[in-house]
Amino acid sequence: MVPDLHTLTVPTDELFWSTWISYGRSGSLMPAFAKTENGPLTDIQIASLAAYLNAVIPSHITNSIL
Questions:
Q1: Which whole-number Å values give the CA distances from 18 to 30, 65, 66, in the listed order?
Q2: Cβ–Cβ < 8 Å for 28, 56
Q3: How far apart are CA 33 and CA 22, in angstroms?
Q4: Between 48 and 62, whose confidence is greater?
Q5: What is the mean pLDDT of the chain?
Q6: How far apart are the first and last CA of the chain?
Q7: What is the C-alpha separation between 25 and 12, in angstroms, rounded?
Q8: 3-class DSSP state of 43
Q9: Confidence of residue 44 (pLDDT cuts 50, 70, 90)
Q10: Is the pLDDT of residue 22 over 70?
Q11: Exposure check for the chain: N or C terminus, fewer CB within 10 A?
C-alpha cells in the first residue's frame, strides 16, 4: 500500500524526507535510493528531492513539546 503523503501523521522536514528517500521504509514498498545503500541517487539528488517534497508537502503536524 502506498501512503498518501499529504496525510502523514508525523512531523516532516527536509531531514525526514532525506532519511526516508535514502534508507527507505521498513515494512513498506519504499526501497532505499541512496548510492550508499546500492540505490541510484547521489546525496545531491536526494537533497534536491527532499527540498522539493518539503516545499510541496508541508508538515501539518507540529513537533512541539507539551
A1: 13, 23, 27
A2: no
A3: 5
A4: 48
A5: 91
A6: 33
A7: 14
A8: helix
A9: very high
A10: yes
A11: C
Q: Roughly what angle, to the nearest 10 degrees, separates helices 14-23 and 43-56?
A: 130
Place of cell 532505499: 32
pLDDT the model gives residue 64: 60
Cell of 8: 502523514
Please tell me whether residue 41 adopts helix, strand or coil conformation. strand
Tell me, rounded to whole angstroms, the distance of Cα 34 from its chain centroid. 12
For cell 508538515, the residue is 59
| Closest by Cα among 22, 18, 50, 56 to 36 | 22
